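Following up on my earlier thread - several people asked me to post the actual chain instead of describing it. Fair enough. Here it is, all 127 residues.
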Amino acid sequence: MTVALWCILIAFLLPYLCTYVAKISGGFRLKDNHDPRDFLDSLNGLGRRAYAAQLNGFEVTPAFAAAVIVAHLAGNAELVTIDVMAVLFITSRLLYIICYLVDWAILRSLVWLVGMGLIVGLFVVSA
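Reply from S.P.:
Thanks for posting it. Predicted structure:
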């Protein structure tokens, strides 16, 4: 498997990192597993931001996965280009999560824009 394809797996797992942060900051306990989403309404601050970052991760990951797969299938781009763009996307997602958790809203939006640009770029280099 290529680096870019491994990055798809990483992108699928990153939202669960945010889930963990949201749960531990929201006081989630294993005994609450009968209704594991009940505590979401009571989240604020860090927990609420972690949950929002989680949702954003679930929203953007399918587009990233599609872009990487299309880039591989089209065969028009150098593999190293696809791999570098995929690693940069994962890096942007990690920075996005950090920015969300520490509440750097403007920087978070800029990092999000970079990530979206990388997704579009994967399609462009495939053309």
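Residues 46-74 form the longest helix (29 residues). That should answer part of your original question.
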